[in-house]
Amino acid sequence: MLPIRAVPIHSICPKKVYRLRDFLAVLEANFLTYAYQAILKRTPNEADYRFYRTGLYSNGNRAFVLANILWSEEAQRHRVRYT
Fold it and tell me: Alpha carbon of 33 to those of 2, 3, 40, 58, 70: distances in Å?
């Protein structure tokens, strides 16, 4: 497996289909913002940050956070495809 290179959020273009590696390539500090912009088409608010920083994301599991966002009712309205 090739190593994953960290990519700043501003260098990634919006896509219609995302893969897990797209999110893993984002710098840690930008991960939640990128996930929200890509999946929910908005920036996370303070409550979103608090929820993930103290709850689900406290263990650092990006895949678990992405699954939680992708399976939300809000994400289903945007019909983002993922593989």
Answer: 25, 23, 10, 16, 14
Residue 17, H or E segment: strand 17-18
pLDDT in tens, 17-68: 778 888 888 888 888 899 998 888 899 999 998 888 876 666 778 888 888 8
Residue 31 · residue 61 · CB < 8 Å: no
Nearest to 62 by CA among 16, 37, 39, 28: 28
First-to-last alpha carbon distance for the chain, in angstroms, is: 18
Looking at residue 59, its amino acid is N
The pTM of the full predicted model, rounded to 2 decimals, is: 0.73
* CA 63 – CA 82 distance, rounded (Å): 12
Query: What residues does each domain of the chain span?
Result: 17-82
Number of H helices, E strands in the chain: 5, 2
